[in-house]
């Protein structure tokens, strides 16, 4: 059965890493077809809109999208296209794995953890922003709801159970933010009690960051609110070599968008040296979501084998390969 996905080729290095990723996916013979749509600077230049209606319609229709990095112009439209997409499609769960890979610039080994971040509310959304007339005082409203807290924590525990994880760490700042973070923690405790088979602990966010640096192996699944999750997930990416190896899934009830979480890197755009691994790993998350678990495993194994062999690695990984030669090396290892 053919599955059509909306494909956003993105800005900067986006088209290059997307072409490489689709080349690898095509070698898996999954029956995928692609509906190419625009967003970001490319869309603005072509259509005068950062998020054209046709793009939103395609995501709604196919319910699955694969997205390269986008650039949001300063002073134009949304504060963030990514935030806008999450709000439009209620993509409440942001899932960011951090896994150690061979031959990368990492100080740690054998890290394998997942950050599950609430994606639709909290300080990160930027609601209720204002600046006083004299420019001396800025305000921001932070809203946390029982519904938002309950569904993200439940998602984290369900994910842990589904993929065989043993422990969920609830990260909060309820000792100080007693209303917002306090509500999140209260609801999280209620949900955790319904999963007696999953070990659960609680940790204040600042201690979490310290513990991740000192002893990252103690973590398995982390669940937290939007702003804390934004910071923690990038910290975790740093533990395994940086954003070049960091995929992200944005999942809702009616749609899901999979992506590389790094930026559009305009300084190297067009040079053919961008590392496609983050988007390839995002595509692996997409395959898991589509129920193609074996194919996702094959894709990840091929990436690991290529890194181990140091075959056509891109310059950021210490090699002299190109985006496409690296992708071709990965594709050649897509055995059973």
Write the layout of secondary structure elements.
Layout: E1 3-8, H1 14-27, E2 32-37, H2 41-47, H3 53-62, E3 64-67, H4 81-88, E4 93-99, E5 112-118, E6 130-131, E7 138-139, H5 146-163, E8 167-172, H6 180-192, E9 199-204, H7 205-214, E10 221-224, H8 226-239, E11 247-251, E12 256-260, H9 277-289, H10 293-309, H11 323-331
Parallel strand pairs: 1-2, 1-3, 3-12, 5-10, 8-9, 8-10
Antiparallel strand pairs: 4-5, 4-11, 6-7, 11-12
Question: Can you describe this structure?
Answer:
Its EC number is 1.1.1.41. InterPro entries: IsoCit/isopropylmalate_DH_CS, IsoPropMal-DH-like_dom. One of its GO terms (biological process) is isocitrate metabolic process. The chain is an alpha/beta fold and 336 residues long. The chain has helices at 14-27, 41-47, 53-62, 81-88, 146-163, 180-192, 205-214, 226-239, 277-289, 293-309, 323-331; strands spanning 3-8, 32-37, 64-67, 93-99, 112-118, 130-131, 138-139, 167-172, 199-204, 221-224, 247-251, 256-260. It has two domains: 1-104 and 242-336, Isopropylmalate Dehydrogenase (3-Layer(aba) Sandwich); 107-239, 3-Layer(aba) Sandwich (Isopropylmalate Dehydrogenase). The chain has eleven helices and twelve strands. The two termini are 21 Å apart.
């Amino acid at each position: 059965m053919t599955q059509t996905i909306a494909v956003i080729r993105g800005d900067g290095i986006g088209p290059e890493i997307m072409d490489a990723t689709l080349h690898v996916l095509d070698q898996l013979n999954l029956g995928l077809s692609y509906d190419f749509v625009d967003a970001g600077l490319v869309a603005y230049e072509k259509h005068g809109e950062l998020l054209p209606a046709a793009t939103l319609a395609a995501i709604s229709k196919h319910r699955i999208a694969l997205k390269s990095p986008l650039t949001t112009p300063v002073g134009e439209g949304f504060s963030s296209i990514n935030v806008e997409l999450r709000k439009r499609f209620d993509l409440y769960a942001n899932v960011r794995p951090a896994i150690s890979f061979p031959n990368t610039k990492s100080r740690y080994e054998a890290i394998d953890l997942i950050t599950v971040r609430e994606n639709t509310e909290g300080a990160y959304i930027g609601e209720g922003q204002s600046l006083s007339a004299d420019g001396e005082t800025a305000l921001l409203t932070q809203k946390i709801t029982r519904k938002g807290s309950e569904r993200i924590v439940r998602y984290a525990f369900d994910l842990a159970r589904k993929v065989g994880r043993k422990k969920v760490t609830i990260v909060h700042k309820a000792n100080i933010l007693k209303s917002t973070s306090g509500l999140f923690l209260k609801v999280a405790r209620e949900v955790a009690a319904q999963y007696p088979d999953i070990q659960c602990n609680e940790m204040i966010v600042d201690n979490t960051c310290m513990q991740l640096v000192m002893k990252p192996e103690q973590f398995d699944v982390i669940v937290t609110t939007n702003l804390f999750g934004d910071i923690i997930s990038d910290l975790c990416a740093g533990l395994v070599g940086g954003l070049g190896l960091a995929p992200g899934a944005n999942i809702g009830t009616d749609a899901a968008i999979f992506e590389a979480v790094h930026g559009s890197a305009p300084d190297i755009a067009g040079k053919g040296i961008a590392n496609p691994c983050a988007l390839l790993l995002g595509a692996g998350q997409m395959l898991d979501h589509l129920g193609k678990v074996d194919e996702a495993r094959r894709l990840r194994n091929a990436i690991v084998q290529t890194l181990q062999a140091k075959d056509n690695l891109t310059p950021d990984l210490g090699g002299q390969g190109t985006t496409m030669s690296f992708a071709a090396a990965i594709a050649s290892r897509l055995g059973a």
